[in-house]
Amino acid sequence: MIRKKATRKSRDKGSSSRLLSEPAAIMAPRLLFILSAVALCILGLVMVYSASSITAYNEFGDAAYYVKRQAIFLAVGIVLCVACSRIPYTVWCLPGVFITFWVITVVMLSLTAFGMGVSALGAERSIVIAGFNLQPAEFAKITVLIAVASIAQMRMNGMIGGQVLDMGAEHRKISLDELRLLQKLKTGCLLRAACELGCAAAGATDEDTLARARAYGEKLGLAFQIEDDILDIEGDAATLGKSIGKDAASEKSTFPSLLGLEECRELAAKLTEEAVDAIKPLDGHAFLVELARSLTGRTK
Known about the structure:
The chain is mainly alpha-helical and 300 residues long. Helices cover 76% and strands 4% of the residues.
């Protein structure tokens, strides 16, 4: 038990030091956003008190009655924000999530349209459920944000998208499908682009050749990354020319952490042979075959 506590403390300390060591270009916008949100929350509470203190005192004998209620809602909102931030962004992009919020919005708008809403300033702006005023407009905003984020994510299909996924995967466990997508958009895209450029330089731009070149690059890129993950555990720092164990230190999900070393070796070999099979029908494939197989079991 003592050993676990010590490990957890060291991990927390490491996470804090990494956070503090972030470049100013990254931390400055984050801090500005956080400080702006805090300032707006404080301003909102002040405005609520200014607008409701007399009414609250006359009705409840407490001038800060409504401010206290808003403070409670604010605290609940912060907790929900933290909880939602722990959910992988890929979940929010699922069609089922958008449809759920869309249905809730439509139902709430329908209830207000049929006279079941609470009238405010001449319009039925909200409905009351279990003593809480729920505004359809707020659910509509969430629905629109999810839709826009999903569309943006659909367009984020290159190396930048892969880097975004990679940064979001630190300090949390991701699924094997997420990891494959991440590496497909990073190393896979890099090698695929190199293969496509080679085809363009050679004038081999027919669809079959390009498709085989893309398959070779993607399969080889994934195999290369798996080997790289293995070397980060078993490699020699002097041979590699870089430190090892960085993935474990940053608590990143890797192929060995999800599959185990032996299954990773089998998968890397399988992907290498799939890459080889993709370009075998092409003329002059001998070098590419040798290159692919030389990467399997590499030591650097």
